[in-house]
Amino acid sequence: MPETTRESLTSGGWKELEFGTFREGVAIHWIQPFENDQPGVALLKYEAGATVPRHRHMGLETIMVLQGTQSDEAGDYGPGCLVINRKDTEHSVWSDTGCVVLIQWDQPVKILQEELA
């Protein structure tokens, strides 16, 4: 199998993978890190109540929700939802329940507003 293959993600295969810290309350498993102008592909695992502050998409972002519910200002997205965020769009993201998403970024996002401590 190619190094970038991950088994059974839609049926919980992500539970066997190692995750590192991405942001407070959000862990990451890189499938394909950003390198040599290639998009980044990862799994993000949100704890219940986790948030990502308002940010701008510097390129296309594609998200597939695998478990739980991810939310933004436009709505709530459960398992199987596909979310497309186009270049130059902005939003914040949260998960009240916790969730796991498969995400691809053409470019890293630009954080516009950090959470206040």
Automatic annotation (TrEMBL):
Residue ranges constituting the ChrR-like cupin domain according to the UniProt record? 16-103
List, alphabetically, the Gene3D superfamilies matched.
Jelly Rolls
Q: Which Pfam families match?
A: Cupin_7
Coiled coil spans: none
Q: Per its UniProt entry, which superkingdom is the organism in?
A: Bacteria
Descriptive protein name: Anti-sigma factor ChrR (Cupin superfamily)
